[in-house]
Amino acid sequence: MSTTGVQVQIFGTKKSADTRKAQRFFQERRVAVHFCDLAERAASIGELKRFSQKFGVEKLIDRESKRFAEMGLRTALYGEERWLTILADEPLLLQQPLVRLQNKVSIGLAETEWKEWLG
pLDDT digit string (tens) for 19-39? Predict the structure, then answer.
C-alpha cells in the first residue's frame, strides 16, 4: 500500500506514552497523522461504534485508568449503548490510542497490526 495521500486518525491524549508512540510510528513512515486529543475533544459515539463493532465495547474501556476508579465504575453493569454514551462523555475512560486507517481500526499499541496495514 502506498502511503501517499493516506491519513491515519489517532485518538488519545498527549500524556499517553502509547499514543505518542503511535504518532511517532506513523510519522516515521511518512503517513499523515490526524491527532484527536481526547482531553480537548471527545470522540463521537459514531466513531466509538467503529471500534466497538470490531472489538466489542469492553475492549474500549480502560479499567485501570484513574478516571475509572474516580467514577466508581468497578461494579457497573451497563449495556453496550450505555457504555458508548459514558465513553463519549468521559473520553479519559478509553484505552489509548484508538487508531483508524480508512476502514481498519486498532485499540492500544498495535505496531505489528499497523505494519500489516501499511504493507
Answer: 999 999 999 999 999 999 999
